[in-house]
Amino acid sequence: MISLPITLEQLIMAVQQLPKSDRQQIAKALIEVELQSDLTALIEELYSLPPIEEITDADIIQEIQAVRQQMSQ
Fold first, then answer.
1. C-beta separation of 15 from 26 below 8 A
2. Taking the C-alpha atoms of 53, 58, 63 and 64 in order, what is their torsion angle to the nearest 10 degrees?
3. Contact call for residues 15 and 23 (beta carbons, < 8 A)
4. CA–CA separation, 50 and 8 (whole Å)
5. Euclidean distance between CA atoms 59 and 73, whole angstroms
6. Cα 52 vs. chain centroid, distance in angstroms?
7. CB–CB of 64/56 below 8 Å?
8. DSSP state string for the chain
């Protein structure tokens, strides 16, 4: 593997010279990296939250009945 120092501006210029299909592949790869990063952050945030109390079927039915009653008034 060859390693060459390159600036961000040089990289952008090189990408701009690529065919559209290659630029699309690069864009897709960058988006996937960002999505993975965002998803990882979301998962970490969700796991850091305190556990939610168990919701019973009775709680759900009670809430549905309350909403239906409000809608019928």
1. yes
2. 140
3. yes
4. 42
5. 22
6. 22
7. no
8. -------HHHHHHHHHTS-HHHHHHHHHHHHHHHHHHHHHHHHHHHHHSPPPPP--HHHHHHHHHHHHHHHH-
Q: What is the pLDDT of residues 15-63, one digit of tens each?
A: 999 999 999 999 999 888 888 888 888 888 888 888 778 889 999 999 9
Residues 6+ apart with CB under 8 A from 22: none
Furthest-apart CA pair in the chain: how many Å? Answer: 74
